[in-house]
């Protein structure tokens, strides 16, 4: 369970988040809104990547700004550019790096690595140069590297931006199959069809919060007004 209480944040002259109160308990939650509405900033507060100026973010009662290490074990974060998340030369090394700070014994570490490679169809690429994977495969590697840590929550910031239609469908299927709670920021509104809840942001505030069809309709109407 994630709770945001009175979360506000300024970046430069701009009030990027204003008094956000949210309790996020559903299994699949989408966050939508115009460019610059504050989605990424909000997402980054969920695992302590950004410490808000005011208010608190609690993950299972842990303060994301203070108990950051414990919160990061619970909340995995995926950035939109999968290439930027690749830190090691090969696929297996990159996934293994994610496990390093968990201090698992060698048997457990190898078992998790093997199971994760298999789950994401990356077994035959284990020793492959990670930067030479296709865009979709890099996305799968990014999923693997985050999920091998077995977080309880996965926050994905625009994971579909660079993907073709086939890989978007693959992403949708991958997300649908996850045991984790998922918070997904996206401009691909169709990814949210089967979600439990969609939060609409505008100018740093939550302006709508509800089931996907209503939330998407609200967002479309809001954007429609702006282009008139
Ligand atoms: N380091 C910074 N300094 C000043 N302003 C910033 C900084 N980082 C982001 N901003 C501003 O904060 C606002 C919110 O940005 P944020 O990335 O959270 O929006 P977003 O809703 O995720 O946008 P997008 O859909 O384009 O990814 C934007 O106006 C952005 O220009």
TrEMBL record:
Where does the ABC transporter domain start and stop, copy by copy?
2-228
The record, for Pfam families, names: ABC_tran
PROSITE patterns named among the record's database cross-references: ABC_TRANSPORTER_1 (PS00211), ABC_TRANSPORTER_2 (PS50893)
Q: Which UniProt keywords apply?
A: ATP-binding, Nucleotide-binding, Transport
Domain of life, source organism: Bacteria
InterPro entries referenced in this protein's UniProt entry, alphabetically: AAA+_ATPase (IPR003593), ABC_transporter-like_ATP-bd (IPR003439), ABC_transporter-like_CS (IPR017871), ABC_transpr_CbiO/EcfA_su (IPR015856), ECF_ABC_transporter_ATP-bd (IPR050095), P-loop_NTPase (IPR027417)
Q: Name one GO molecular function term.
A: ATP binding
Keyword check for Transport:
yes
Is-annotated flag, keyword Lipid metabolism?
A: no
Where is the secretion signal located? none
Q: Which protein family is named in the record?
A: Belongs to the ABC transporter superfamily.
Kindly provide the name given to this protein in its UniProt entry. Answer: ABC transporter ATP-binding protein
Species name for this entry? Luteipulveratus flavus
């Amino acid at each position: 369970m994630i709770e945001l209480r009175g979360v506000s944040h300024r970046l430069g002259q701009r009030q990027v988040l204003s008094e956000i109160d949210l309790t996020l308990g559903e299994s699949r939650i989408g966050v939508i809104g115009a460019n610059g509405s504050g989605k990424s900033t909000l997402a980054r507060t969920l695992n302590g990547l950004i410490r808000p100026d005011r208010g608190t973010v609690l993950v299972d009662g842990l303060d994301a700004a203070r108990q950051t290490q414990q919160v990061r074990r619970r909340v995995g974060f995926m950035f939109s550019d999968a290439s930027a998340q690749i830190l090691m030369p090969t696929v297996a090394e990159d996934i293994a790096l994610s496990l390093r700070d968990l201090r698992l014994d060698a048997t457990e570490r190898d078992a998790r690595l093997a199971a994760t490679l298999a789950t994401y169809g990356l077994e035959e690429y284990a020793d492959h140069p990670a930067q030479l994977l296709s865009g979709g495969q890099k996305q799968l590697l990014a999923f693997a590297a985050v999920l091998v840590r077995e977080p309880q929550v996965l926050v994905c910031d625009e994971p579909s931006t660079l993907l073709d239609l086939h890989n978007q469908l693959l992403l949708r299927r991958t997300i649908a199959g996850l045991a984790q709670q998922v918070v997904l920021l996206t401009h691909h509104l169709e990814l949210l069809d089967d979600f439990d809840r969609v939060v609409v942001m505008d100018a740093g505030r939550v302006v709508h919060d509800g089931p996907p069809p209503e939330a998407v309709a609200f967002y479309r109407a809001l954007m429609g007004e702006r282009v008139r």
